[in-house]
Amino acid sequence: MKIGVIADDFTGASDIALALAEGGMAVSQFIGVPDAAADPALDAGVVALKSRTAPAAEAIADSLAACEWLLGQGCEQIIFKVCSTFDSTPQGNIGPVLDALADRLGAQGVTTCPAFPENGRSVYMGHLFVGDVPLNESGMQNHPLTPMTDSDLRRVLAAQSSHPVGHVPVATVMDGAAAIRAALPREGHAIVDAIRDADLVEIGRAAKGAALLCGASGIALGLPANFGHRPAAPAWEPVRGPGVVLSGSCSRATRAQVARYRTIAPHREVTAAQAVRGEVTAEELADWALAQDVPPLVYSSADPEVVKAAQETFGKGVAAQAIERLFSDLAAALAARGATRIVVAGGETSGAAVQGVRAKTLRIGMRLAAGVPAVRVEGERPLAMALKSGNFGGPDFFAEALALLAGEA
Ligand SMILES: Nc1ncnc2c1ncn2[C@@H]1O[C@H](COP(=O)(O)OP(=O)(O)O)[C@@H](O)[C@H]1O
Ligand SMILES: O=C(O)[C@@H](O)C(=O)COP(=O)(O)O
Predict the structure, then answer these.
(1) Which of 84, 249, 344, 392 best tests ligand 1's pocket when mutated (most atoms within 8 Å of CB)?
(2) What are the tens digits of pLDDT across the range 268-320?
(3) Is 88 in the pocket of ligand 2 (CB under 6 A)?
(4) Which domains does the chain have, with CATH numbers?
């Protein structure tokens, strides 16, 4: 392996795995730190952690373990994959993990850039924009676990990190790789602006030989070329059979997708109260889901007021964990009963579902939407999944993804 990625959630992991695969690299996504050596034919490996909202000490320990494993597979460059909306809390985990990785690798002036222009994320003057609004007006200020209330990434990272945080403005980035290299600070981390894919390609060229980078999937755009790879379309072997959509994301894009899919498919809502009180079981939901003629939707996705009320009643962690546990058990029950296509919306929710089906390695397939590949769970039985980041995909994503997984679109 040449490039090793440590991803702080599972959808983010498949997002950057797609970028590396489309850059022409042979790449697999590993669920947690593997306990054996990887296939030597791989060019890149993505270790998916569920560390975004874990206690900081646990996130650091898991990330360092992932880093050691990747270095052991021969990786020359490590990427810490974070969310393109820089999802974190004042306690972390982006800052603490980045500090620990930089210390381990002896990296200074670490390029940190979550821009992902294709999905509307750009960094300008150190501020993160989603479309044409600053991060804190994008809906992310209402995220159930990591509300983002400040668009100034220099301030956000500095509050979480014990290293100095510098900045490389877009005017310098547009001057190209040499200018970027010259502008990177000699110590700490640097928020690097990028508003176009071309900027990310130059940032990637400037990063040739760098031990550590931090960003969303856009950070990978220029990297495969540094290792001699050329763009390619990842192959996909269709998987037909029973399909189900599971949605625990409460992000704007997902709520629109839920609203749309509800008009064309059988659907069941699971409320936080039902999950916390154990009023629904995974077995019953799985039986219902697999009795439908059209791939059904099971969702807990709710508007911010509903989420807030549930969190006030049960506590933030309790509500989230009960829902994630239910989706994990449901994914397990669905796979056990023969579901072959599972589309999941939400990073934490995807983490729960992937752990539920006991996936260890995911093979990366074709693009379903920007930042969302088809993935195939390695194992005896065919199981295709889509792990969709909360804010990704168009309004018809669920139907489109199910069709593409089956090779029907
Ligand atoms: N109705 C709800 N009330 C409270 N919390 C919820 C509800 N539905 C989902 N959640 C929780 O909100 C979180 C959503 O996070 P995630 O799945 O990562 O979505 P996203 O990708 O949009 O961030 C999960 O922890 C989930 O369990
Ligand atoms: O970079 C991104 O936006 C995604 O890859 C990602 O990490 C999104 O996380 P969730 O919205 O929690 O799925």
Answers:
(1) 249
(2) 999 999 999 999 999 999 999 999 999 999 999 999 999 999 999 999 999 99
(3) no
(4) 3-226 (3.40.50.10840), 243-405 (3.40.980.20)
